[in-house]
């Protein structure tokens, strides 16, 4: 089976007055139909830039994809013209952002916003588009869809608005859905409901989901596989089991230690000390060297390559690499 999306050695830079930021530094991953891949990391690690690059939404200039491929169903998206990308965006690949309010137009009825994209991307009739919109409203769990279609965004709660955004994203039956912090702006109860909705939709439609988040609780709930990003690189990747129960990269271990657990109630968090490296001049060796409790001489001199621990589990750390001379 061919992956829906295959990203190979993606590099993205941004030119600023202060120099060139190397935001994404050789990222590779793939995602299969019906799978949820979570890309996790602290803010500034390159996870959102990676998703923008997939969607062809890097503002250029100052941004630029300087290397790599983004293969979507066998087609390299990095080589496509803007109008070609526009055809794919919203139809074959959809994106959901953190704040549902900015994704909706406050002056347009929900029904019109639902059918806008599909009318643009296909030759469907207005009547059929409306039918489809009602179907999608039902799929995302909005009661009385026919009535609700006539209302405006402010007449819905935050959770309902995010459901509408998801319905809009699904109108053209995309093969890939990219959700960037989709539940961060919602309260905990609604967050759980939206995550359940993602799972339900995936079971019904087989859509592949890339979930971009810094929240390991969200990841634990719905991810199948996880890629941990640090300083523009993927430092560890594996199944949810492998990452949560057998984390091997010191950064992944640190992230997991900083999560409050029920059994540790009342104990203080253990955040990882220090800050990520400056991406204007990223270190030549392992980017985690300055914060790593296990750093060795080789770490700051040579970038660790990926060591495969299983078919699904890979880690970029000299601790796991037999070639390291300690
Ligand atoms: Fe730590 Fe070295 Fe592994 Fe980097 S390569 S995470 S510095 S042990
Ligand atoms: Mg972000």
From TrEMBL:
Keyword vocabulary terms for this entry: ATP-binding, Cell membrane, Membrane, Nucleotide-binding, Transport
Subcellular location: Cell membrane
Subcellular location, principal: membrane
SUPFAM superfamilies: P-loop containing nucleoside triphosphate hydrolases
Membrane topology note: Peripheral membrane protein
Residue stretches making up the ABC transporter domain: 5-256
Gene Ontology biological process terms in this record: peptide transport
Record GO cellular component, one term: plasma membrane
InterPro entries cross-referenced by the UniProt entry: AAA+_ATPase (IPR003593), ABC_Ni/Peptide_Import (IPR050388), ABC_transporter-like_ATP-bd (IPR003439), ABC_transporter-like_CS (IPR017871), Oligopep_ABC_C (IPR013563), P-loop_NTPase (IPR027417)
Domain of life: Bacteria
A GO molecular-function annotation: ATP binding
UniProt xrefs under NCBIfam families: oligo_HPY
Similarity field: Belongs to the ABC transporter superfamily.
Protein name: Peptide ABC transporter ATP-binding protein
